[in-house]
């Protein structure tokens, strides 16, 4: 899905707010409470995700916990023919 001009402008305004170039009041007046709160939640979730321990990954709903397993459990490596 391509971003619209309005989407891009919303992102730019939020980034200005995030950098401190706009006050919270200015940002809320320009974008509305729902957008500011939603973008703030998304930004916090993104920051938290970047700090997660990647030693525990999910593959097809199963955790790979430092087992050294790097292949998907459903992969079949038998040769046909």
UniProtKB/TrEMBL annotation:
Chain intervals with Basic and acidic residues compositional bias: 69-81
Superkingdom: Archaea
Annotated segments matching region Disordered: 58-81
Family annotation (InterPro entries): DUF8065
UniProt protein name: Uncharacterized protein
Organism per entry: Halocalculus aciditolerans
């Amino acid at each position: 899905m391509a971003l619209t001009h309005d989407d891009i402008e919303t992102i730019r305004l939020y980034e200005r707010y995030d950098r401190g170039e706009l006050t919270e009041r200015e940002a809320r007046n320009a974008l509305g409470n729902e957008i500011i709160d939603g973008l703030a939640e998304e930004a916090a979730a993104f920051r938290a995700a970047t700090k997660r321990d990647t030693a525990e990954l999910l593959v097809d709903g199963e955790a790979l916990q430092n087992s050294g397993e790097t292949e998907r459990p459903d992969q079949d490596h038998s040769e046909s023919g």
